[in-house]
Amino acid sequence: MKKIKYIRKAAPPHMVGDGFKVRAFIGSDLWKDLSPFLMLDYIEPWHLHPTEFPRGVDVHPHKGFETVSILWEGALAHEDSTGAKGKLFAGDVQWMTAGSGILHKEFHEEEFSRRGGVLHGAQLWVNLPAQYKNTPPSYQDLKKEAIPEMVLPDQKGRIRILAGALKGLQGIARTFTRINIYDIHAQADAVIDFELPPGDNCALLLLKGTILVDDQVTREGDLVVLDPQDDRVKFQTNNTVHVLVLSGEPILEPVVAYGPFVMNTQEEIMEAIDAFQAGKFGKL
Length: 284
What we know:
Blueprint: E1 4-8, E2 14-16, E3 20-26, H1 31-34, E4 37-48, E5 56-62, E6 65-73, E7 75-80, E8 85-89, E9 93-97, E10 102-108, H2 110-115, E11 117-127, E12 138-142, E13 149-151, E14 157-163, E15 165-166, E16 169-170, E17 179-186, E18 191-195, E19 201-208, E20 210-213, E21 216-219, E22 223-226, E23 232-237, E24 241-248, E25 256-258, E26 261-263, H3 266-277
Antiparallel strand pairs: 1-22, 2-3, 3-4, 4-11, 5-10, 6-9, 6-11, 7-8, 7-10, 9-12, 13-14, 14-17, 15-16, 17-24, 18-23, 19-22, 19-24, 20-21, 20-23, 25-26
């Protein structure tokens, strides 16, 4: 059974653009223990008043990694320099491979902005191995109805497989390395029990409720980092819970990051900046 290595709390909330109030759970100090995950910004349920001018983040670049946007409430719209555009609604996931470089913008969806409502979601940054850092940019829009889910025994809840596999169910996200992302909603007294490849990093982010893991009660707002040794994850719910499980094969390569660029060397970072400034990420 995997043991708790340590528990972290998020940094205080901060704004990203004028549309996303987030709490950051993963920073550079956790890269070794949580590779391939580089960042996790959590948008706590946030009630927004109606507006005619959608809030969000205007044009910005990315290179060398992937972004995974998970939406539980609200609606978002996105567009990028490849010509791709689309909308996310509650339950949807957007998986964007920045790869060799992309310009991107994301705002609250227009109708959602006009009527107002609750925005609730998260965005992950997932590292790419060196051999894929210059892969062509691409999108995967994972719609709610296409995401496989497993019902827990006694109808105690459900697990959505956003990426990877779980007990014979295969997620629809295409990934460059082995990654599992499970979105768990469960009632009290449910037992969650599954196996992962030994050596894979794993963390449990408790977004609601309390759980018992490794004989320790963990609470809402805890990021529970588990020891990579052993292959079994098991925990029990104490009440109604929402848990995001992140696990993956660690990428054992140097990580050098500068803003929205994630490469393997400082020289590659300078090349990325030069390419962006030369307009090689396209136009938006």
